[in-house]
Specification:
The longest helix is centred in the middle third of the chain and has 38 residues. The protein has a domain of about 140 residues: Butyryl-CoA Dehydrogenase, subunit A, domain 3, CATH 1.20.140. Helix 1 runs parallel beside helix 3 and helix 3 runs antiparallel to helix 4. It is built from four helices and five strands. It has a five-stranded antiparallel sheet. GO terms for molecular function: structural molecule activity. Belongs to the claudin family. This is Claudin.
Length: about 210
């Protein structure tokens, strides 16, 4: 029962981490500028994400613009996109594989060893998914930090970490932790003993008396 509870906890954590990775990928707040230089009256804040850039007006309205061309984007941004999309796809595969290996599911009940190995395999996929998202968010955050501390970067164009980065870091950690818990359901090797052989019973009496 304890291993089943740990397995269920790992699946829930990994699932929440996968949902968080999707939310982080879709959010435009990967980096944000508190002020837009001299245009503070018309644009209060600027946000940039993987797919679009947004400007929040002083009235509270947010206007977003999707990036026009994929080829005009920086190579690092394209690589971050690819890693996050790969993390989402891997998480989807890990979700189906882990569900198959869950003890509360009835599929593959005839072979408990293979069923547990499916849960372990799903956990490994979740760990890889979390690592891909962690690399993507950390790489992007490193670029933002280096540009912020670069003395040649104008003050008006300096960006800080956005909320999407923090969600991505938390989500990737949950995916890795949940995948690790799923891997704890690895079937243990048990010492196999040769089957005991029954001793032959004494032959029943034939009913004949010998003198």
């Amino acid at each position: 029962m304890a291993s089943g509870g740990l397995q269920l906890l790992g699946f829930v954590l990994a699932f929440l981490g996968w949902i968080g990775i999707i939310i982080s990928t879709a959010m435009p707040q990967w980096k944000m500028a508190s002020y837009a230089g001299d245009n503070i009256v018309t644009a209060q804040a600027l946000y940039e994400g993987l797919w679009m850039s947004c400007a929040m007006q002083s009235t509270g309205q947010i206007q977003c613009k999707v990036y026009d061309s994929l080829l005009k984007l920086e190579g690092s941004l394209q690589a971050t996109r690819a890693l996050m999309v790969a993390a989402i796809l891997l998480g989807l595969v890990g979700l189906f594989v882990a569900v198959t290996g869950m003890k509360c599911m009835k599929c593959m009940e005839d072979n408990q060893v293979k069923k547990m190995w499916m849960a372990v395999f799903g956990g490994v996929i979740f760990i890889i998914s979390g690592l891909a998202a962690l690399v993507a968010t950390s790489w992007y955050g490193n670029r933002v930090a280096r540009a912020f501390y670069d003395p040649f970067t104008p003050v008006n164009t300096r960006f800080e970490f956005g909320s999407a980065l923090f969600i991505g870091w938390a989500a990737s950690s949950l995916a890795i932790l949940g995948g690790s818990f799923l891997c704890c359901s690895c079937p243990r090797r048990e010492t196999s003993y040769p089957p005991t052989r029954g001793y032959p019973k004494n032959a029943s009496s034939t009913g004949k008396d010998y003198v």
